[in-house]
Amino acid sequence: MSTVRLIARDELRLMLRNRVALIAFALLVLLTLVAVASSWSHQRGVASLRDRHRHEAEHAFVAQPDRHPHRMVHYGHFIFRPLGPLAAFDPGVDAFTGNSMFLEGHRQNTANFGDVRQSALLIRFGQLTPAFVLQIVAPLLLVFLGFGGLARETERGTLPLLMLQGATRRQVVAGKLRALGTVALAAAAPAMLGLLVITGQPGALALPMLAIALGYLLYLGLWTVLILLVSALVRRSRDALLVLVALWAVTTVLLPRAVPDLASGAVPLRNRLQTDVAIARDLRKMGDSHNPDDPHFARFKQALLDRHHVTRVEDLPFNYKGLLAVEGERLTSALFDLYAAESFAAQERQIGLITAAGLLSPAIALRGLSMTAAGTDFAAHRRFLEQAEAYRYTLVQRLNRMQAEDVSYADDSATDAGADRRKRIGAAHWRTIPDFRFAAPTGSTLARAALPGLTLLSLWLVAACALLTLATRRLGARR
Amino acid sequence: MTLWRHELRLLLRQRPSALALLLLALLTTAALATGMAEVARQRAAIAAIPAAQAEDIGAVADYVGRTKDAGSAAYYSFHPTWDAPAPLAFAALGMRDVAPYMLRVRALGLEAQIYDGDTFNPEVALPGRFDFAFVLVFLAPLFVIALFHDLQSGEREAGRQRTLDALPRGGAALWRRRTALRLALLWAALALPFAVTALAEGVTPGVILLVSGVILAYLLFWIALAALVGRLRWSSVANAATLAAAWLVLVLIVPTLGHVAINRAIPVAQGAEIALAQREAVNHAWDIPRAVTMRRFYATHPRWSDAPPLGTAFHYKWYLAFHQNGDDAVAARSRDYRAALERRDRAGRAFGWLLPSVGVQALLTRLARTDLSAQLAYQDRIRAFHARLRSFTMAMSSTTGRSAPPTSRARRASIITPGADPDAARSGHAAFARTDA
Asked: Which residues contact A93 (CB under 8 A, 6 or more apart)?
């Protein structure tokens, strides 16, 4: 075993003597620190801003004066998507999705004011986060430090010398692997330290953090093995460098861009205009509350009258208009859910295609796993949208029921000068409505969602190790 | 000429070089194809608007016809606006995937509508699009590095450099010839497929020439960098590593640092604050005397001030007035928000003068009209359209007490047809002319 350690130490000493390599490594550490600091302060800034807006919106809601409940349905509520602590490590799609949403009756609004539309040009070059540094920059540094590891020995004919001194091929490869692996660990250390600091915050989850750390270690381990594999297969170190840079460019730069484009071409999404028109069309078919002769609402009314043994809506024990609003909201919301499910399913299919491309590019596999565990992927956004819609529905229906129970039908239909005052109900009602609270997923949910990505990366690593073992056997053999 | 042909043969006989050039041409073609497909999808979506809109507005007109109230026409009808892709959009899709290019608006408060987005998959948008701009800005430099990193060092390592320098028409002339040849081939792999596509898409020759020039300039920047590194007389391996590191720094790292710096230096008041304030202003109208609202409205919009007074019943004139007041209340904030966005954009562009990668991206998205200024120009057209929609609706509901709805087919059509495309915007108020004399 000491042979391996000796070879590793020798390799590391060689790297340390390489001034360019040292500078590159120092720059990587610096970049990581900048990324951790800026990403963390950005995350905290965003989180506290959204929290402040949330407070403002909640305060504004309960501060509304006496109103007709339907006015509150349209006053609506603003909610903000909270940003978890792990977003400081990998903000994922946070900048690309709107983070505030206006909720009101019979309309489903979009989530607005995403960062991407507020910082146009440069954001499309990528964001400086610890995840970006480890996913894209760190592998290239490892390539620069490790491409010559084995190719240099074969190229210069020093491999036979090593073997004459009693080192086996396996020991040589293991030593180089150990040296480059040490560098990989050192390169990952600042980001992992940042991750630890971030998870020291309240509300941070241990299991997803572990999944993230494991994922990145697998990824960098994979690159270490891949670099030595190429270095073992290629006879000249320059060829090793060119092959590795090409491999890096294809798997971390080209495929992560090209694959999502293909996926979005393969699975079209219905745009908002067509969705709105389709919902309106379906709604007219189900029941048109504006049409006095509409069969659905005629049946609805008749059933109500029959149940309460009266013949006119005026004689019902509650405000018929409120119940009509409840029924109308029920119908529109069912359609919102239907169309949202369709859109989510299409987007999941797109993401499924991207995930499958993790078989071609470990960077894609890692990116998915990292966002998933950090709770900043599409699934997390979807969770927010679904909870927002559920909250919107209960909010509106509560207000509609207030209209049914606390406003009389006669007042609601009156148009005289004092009618406006009589239609209003007390402001105390607004305080009975609970605020929106985003139910964050548990740590084990997030970690479990990251399992497929971890499995894929492990498979990559196993395959690369197997290939390296094969290549080791033929290392230095004349071809 | 024979010397050139000879050099070409030499270059293409090296399999890696020939493969690299072929790969670049293939990637360019693929990026152009995905860009074209995306633009075609957007055009198809825009072309599908009239049919969908006719169906939707027809149903609204049916209902409005029954209620005989022009105000509810304003309330229930959404009018489509769209921003058709410019001919060059296929080359640099820019923001068109994350900012909407179709938006329906109605005559109510615009500040609550104009920031709405369209449906898109954030995980697809996150890495950026695979378009021609990406191939040029991100990938082309790697091909420059592949072809140029051993231009001189390769010959030196093979022990041929002294011989080559001593040849007649060797030395500097030889390196110039080889450089020019590689540049021409790289340029051809990028510019020829681009030019063919651009001609087919109807891009004007001037713009095609300009983009071809940009391609050339960007390639020259990287070739100059390679030559600079080459002067250090390092080994081919060291050259390749240095150039790849430079690429990493200039294309990937510095832009992200610039992004952080600009976003910190130029804070943008959150758009959400506009939305919150506008909602307060609009809904407050229900709690104050209607005369107060109308006074305020007439003060800022005197052309409607001679309308008949309000009765006790609900009237859309008042409803529309307080929506207008709500927009007016946040107009300053909205202008500030926009100005801050423009400041950020300007800073990003200024950054592009220092950093070629950002500069080329900025220039291409500007030429393709897919950048922030194109987005804001679209918003301006929406605003102009909305202003006309508003005054049209106000005219309908304010001149009479409870005004006649647009019952005639022609008049109904007049609210249905307008779009916010540039042509409609130029055609002024024609779309709103009341045609039922």
From this structure: A371, A376, A377, A378, A380, A381, B122, B123, B125, B126
Q: Are residues B167 and B27 in the same domain?
A: yes
pLDDT at B426 over 90: no
Same domain, B291 and B250: no
Q: Measured between CA atoms, how close is B168 to chain A, in angstroms?
A: 31
Q: What is the DSSP letter of A252?
A: I
CA-based end-to-end distance of chain A: 30
Residue B192 banded pLDDT, cuts 50, 70, 90: very high
Angle between helix axes A169-199 and A138-146 (nearest 10 degrees) is 160
Residue A148: CB partners within 8 Å, gap ≥ 6? A231, A237, A240, A241, B237
- B309 plus B352 within the same structural domain: yes
Q: Which of residues 258-297 of A touch B (CB under 8 A)?
A: 258, 260-265, 268-277, 280-281, 284, 288, 290-291
Mean pLDDT of B11-20: 85
Beta strands A100-104 and A107-112, pairing class? antiparallel
In A, minimum Cα distance to B37 occurs at A265
- Give chain B's domain count: 2
**How far is B430 from A191, CA to CA, in rounded Å?**
61
Chosen domain end from B219, B237, B265 = B265
**ipTM for the assembly:** 0.91
Asked whether residue B231 falls in the same domain as residue B146, the answer is: yes
Residue of B nearest to A344 (CA): B121
B215 and B236 within one domain? yes
Q: What is the pLDDT of residue A161?
A: 87
| Distance in Å, alpha carbon of A431 to nearest chain B alpha carbon | 18
Quick one: B184 and B285 in the same domain? Answer: no
B347/B268: higher pLDDT: B347
Which residues of chain A neighbour B48 with C-beta distances below 8 Å?
274
- Give pTM, 2 decimals: 0.91
Give long-range contacts, CB 8 A cutoff, 24+ apart: B262-266.
Answer: B262/A119, B262/A122, B262/B344, B262/B347, B262/B348, B262/B351, B263/A119, B263/B344, B265/B347, B266/B340, B266/B343, B266/B344, B266/B347
Of B124, B351, B358, Cβ closest to residue A263: B124
Q: What is the mean pLDDT of residues B29-37?
A: 95
Determine the structural domain holding residue B317 and report its residue range: 48-77+95-128+267-432
In a domain, B82, yes or no: no
N- to C-terminal Cα separation, chain B: 77
Query: Residue A369 — pLDDT band, cuts 50, 70, 90?
Result: very high
Q: What is the rounded average pLDDT for all residues in chain A?
A: 91
Q: Is the pLDDT of residue B359 over 60?
A: yes
- Render pLDDT for B367-425 as a digit per residue (tens, 0 to 9): 999 999 999 999 999 999 999 999 888 887 766 544 444 444 444 444 434 444 434 43
What DSSP line would sit under A139-169, residue for residue? HHHHHHHHTHHHHHHHHHT-HHHHHHTT--H
Let me know whether B149 and B211 are in one domain: yes
Give the per-residue pLDDT at B53: 94
The alpha carbon of residue B36 is apart from the nearest alpha carbon of chain A, in Å, by 11
Q: Which of B231, B248, B265 is the last residue of a domain?
A: B265
**Residue that has been written with the tokens 């210069």 in this structure:** A156
Query: Does the distance separating the beta carbons of A120 and B348 come in below 8 Å?
Result: yes
pLDDT at A430 over 50: yes
Domain shared by B17 and B160, yes or no: yes
CA distance B122 to chain A (A): 6
Query: Is residue B335 one of the residues assigned to a domain?
Result: yes
Task: Confirm whether B306 is domain-assigned.
Answer: yes
Per the domain annotation, does B41 fall within a domain?
no
Instruction: Provide, rounded to the nearest whole percent, the portion of chain A with pLDDT above 70.
Output: 98
**How many other C-beta atoms lie within 10 A of the C-beta of residue A216?**
26
